[in-house]
Amino acid sequence: MRDPETAERGSSDDFPGASNALGGEPSAYLRQHAGNPVHWRPFGDEAFAAAAARDVPVFLSIGYAACHWCHVMAHESFEDQDTADYLNANFVAVKVDREERPDVDAVYMAATQAISGEGGWPMSVFLLPDGRAFHAGTYFPPRPMPGRPSFRQVLEAVRDAWVDRRSAVEENASTLARGIAASQSAVAVRLDGAPEPLDAALLAEAVGALASSEDQADGGFGTAPKFPPSAVLEFLIRHAAMPAETRGSATSAVARDMAGRTLAAMSRSALFDQLDGGFARYSVTRDWSVPHFEKMLYDNAQLLRLYVHWVRLGGSAEYPAEEASEVAGRTADWLLASLGLPADPTAGADALASSLDADTVVDGVNSEGASYLWSPSELAALLGPADGAAVARLMNVHTRGTVSADGSPLHPGRALDGAEAALWRRVRPLLLEARSRRPQPARDDKVVAGWNGLAVAALAEAAAVLDRPGLLAAAERIATYLERVHWRAGSGGEPGKLVRVSHAGTARGIGGLLEDYAFCADGLLSLYAVSGHTRWYGLAEAVLEAARARFAAHGTLADTAGDAGQVFNAQGRRAALDPFDNATPSGAAAFAGALLGYSALSGSGEHRALAGNIFSVLPPLAVRAPRAAGWLLATAQAALAGPVEAAVAGPDTPERAALHRELLLSASPGLVIAVQDTAPGSGAAPRAAPPAVPLLRGRAAAPDGSPQVFLCRGMVCELPVGSVAMLRERLAGMTQ
User: How far apart are CA 168 and CA 166, in angstroms?
Assistant: First the structure.
């Protein structure tokens, strides 16, 4: 197998219609530009060497497949022959998918914000041939607008500066690189010392800080635009699972109320697709009523897990578990139906695509959200005057549209009463069928390892809590794809490697980032806890050891195994570890969570200490920036709550399944579950070979052959229990 660091990319010669070097790229976003007259190249040494040889600057364009304004700029400028001719003559053009290369995106986003005072996508950055930025912006129109020059004006100004004022350009680039280096948070996680103990009061203070920025009226935090605060909500749910008297925490009820308000607001809003399930990327309004319509795998995997955890917690009077259960189920269904890729014949498994676009192409024009919008007249024509008018009132569809002139997304904005719910159940299939006949948004079919790891965890836990075995089968298929396509097993004492991206069953491009390893390991451990198949524990162990070798080998933790030379130049030094969540959880925080779970199963104090070292960055963030450190807070909550170690032993019988399910329904954030694997066949006895999971060593069935559960906490074990009622009582006692 090819090494992921040097894996070849497909040649554009193999892709008819490609006019540049992007036709063979795994990224759908890059392939969307393969037919442009712009002579695009992928990010890499070859492109920068070409710029140096020609003595021209690099034009770097960064975006992603589901980005509305990326499509707009592509159509206006990159498909225009005159613009392309000027760009090709005076620059080397490089295109980057931010989802494929978040490391590149992060450093040039910092440069763009420093230069222009704004950031976003499409990102347009001008670089020296060594990678240092000297000018940047975001969207540039084809003609000048108030306060914004045209793209052609920008190109001509940059070209003139390059030719006539080269020394000033180079000095500007050097100054900017020094400024980026100075402004980066110098977060260093030392791995060679004894970790400091966690303070439970710190997490309670974080809850208070979050409460001060909560939007109690509309849910969420802050004002528009609003993104799903997934990592923060996971922390609040875990904190809410701790009894109020536990370790001095009197904030569990506050945490539950905050989480419930936001979960309810999002699921009743236009952010959630009321017809087909799944959540949009964000809302441009404070009340979640006007979404930005792209649907991302990473958002929906996180949100599925959150709603499942809310169900497991028991919900609240304001947001019942039953309502959240339906949202979770429909989100899982949407993930598999809309992002599920055909089974790869080589891998013998399937995976999930990255996203659906915000835009739908209607009559040759990209129209944002066109698939999802309705007018009162459309509803009346489809449902009849009475039902159409009732649904329009119920779902906030008015004569004047909220997105287009007469189009609005369906959303009630509140809980439905009995009659309303009955009406909606009756008309929803009709609306969904009618919508399916409309033009649909395009899908980005690249497979990102880490995001599929998030989905494995979410689907496995949803299978357990919602009692839907089909979701567990889907999680195992995705894990199999990751193992066979993205994972390169180690040999000769060398650790394995994970490739970040694949397309059409072939992994290509850069090696995985810390987040890829962490999300995959966490997903595999969750999959083991639900399935009981030790294969997944063994793969998680290998992935974690590979992550330690790649990202924690020199006494400190890093997000990447090594920056590209151009990235290093652009920021003046190696990137500091980023402890903050972005659209996905912090890689360092997720790594700490996977280490905690593995240490409980394996008994490895070394891995638990490594997680403890990562928590060293938490104290200054918990109160000052809790909205950006949600996953680190959630992981710290799990560390304080446990580990509560549960080993399920004995024959695979309905009695054992009931004990196992009781554990899976526990909301304790510190609970770690080990299950004896069994040979194929119903009621098979545990395998004769020693269990692969150390927590199961010496654990066996009761003397009468019946299954039982061994519960331990803090190196103290209870007597084994064999009944669900006793297990429930013991679990409750262990969370006190």
Answer: 5
Residue 235 sits at φ, ψ, to 5 deg, of: -60, -45
Asked if 567 and 620 count as a contact pair (C-beta separation under 8 A), the reply is no
| Under 8 Å between Cβ of 371 and 401 | no
Per-residue b or e along 391-425, where b marks 16 or more CB atoms closer than 10 Å to that residue's CB: bbebbbbeeebbbeebbbbbbbeeeeeeebeebbe
Helix (H), strand (E) at residue 736: none
**Residue of 221, 361, 368, 218 lying closest to 291 (CA atoms):** 368
CA-based nearest residue to 412, from 420, 404, 401, 400: 420
Residue 10 pLDDT level (bands cut at 50, 70, 90): very low
CA distance 498 to 516: 8
Of residues 351 and 359, the one with the higher pLDDT is 351
Pairing of strands 58-63, 41-42: unpaired
* Residue 328 near residue 278, CB atoms below 8 Å: no
Predicted model pTM: 0.91
Using CA atoms, how far apart are residues 115 and 176, in angstroms rounded to an integer?
A: 8
Query: DSSP character for 23?
Result: T
Three-state DSSP string of 418-454: HHHHHHHHHHHHHHHHHHHCCCCCCEECCEEHHHHHH
Helix or strand or coil: residue 604? coil
- Cα-Cα-Cα-Cα dihedral sign, residues 286, 292, 298, 304: positive
CA dihedral for 206, 207, 212, 218, sign (positive or negative): positive
Per-residue tokens: 614: 């990562």
- State the pLDDT at residue 549: 93
Distance CA 17, CA 20 (A): 9
- DSSP β-bridge partners for residue 627: none
Digit-coded pLDDT (tens) for 18-42: 568 898 888 889 999 999 999 999 9
Sign of CA dihedral 119, 123, 127, 131: positive
Interacting residues of 403 by C-beta distance below 8 A, sequence separation 6+: 290, 368, 369, 373, 409
What is the C-alpha to C-alpha distance for residues 537 and 458, in angstroms, rounded to an integer?
A: 17
Most confident of 185-194, 661-670, 715-724: 661-670
- Residue 438 phi/psi, 5-degree rounding, is -80, 160
In this prediction, residue 187 carries a pLDDT of 63
Amino acid at 490: G
Q: Which residues contact 566 (CB under 8 A, 6 or more apart)?
A: 43, 48, 127, 130, 131
What stretch of H or E contains 675?
strand 671-675
